[in-house]
Amino acid sequence: MESISTFSTGTKQVNAGVGRAIHVEQQLTRIIPQVLLSVSSSELSRTLRRALAISEHHQRRLAKNYEASAGSFTDSIADELEKQICAVAGNHQRGCVNDLTYTFLITKVIQYKMSCYEQALEISEQKNLADPQRVLGAALSDEAATALFLEELAERLFLRQFPGHASMA
């Protein structure tokens, strides 16, 4: 049986990981509305609206289930991706290449968010914290599905722009 202090430390570590995930979720909810103004693909627009709804849902669920917040949390990887996305949005260009760029960058943000969830899940498994596993596992599953769809969409956009190429892989 684990001691209360070990349990408390595990909970704090999970909350720190969840705080990082909340930070990235908040960044995504700030970024996506800007991106939607510049997107030309209806498929990408629908996918981003869905990703926005999922991100907002995750923020509510995480706030309800954890004593974690993004607070003044900073994260160089997520912050750099946000800067890159804002730079593309600042160009006010539209078209397939722009959509491909957004798809690539948003996918990177989602993959990073997945790593935050995976780290918090790993800690919760090590510390036998069952409740976080359910909530974090569901969030991770949502993110994996969104990332996969964005990767498939990127390939379709690429093939539309460069029809002579059989695959991006």
Automatic annotation (TrEMBL):
SUPFAM superfamilies the record matches: Ferritin-like
Entry protein name: Ferritin-like metal-binding protein YciE
Originating species: Dyadobacter soli
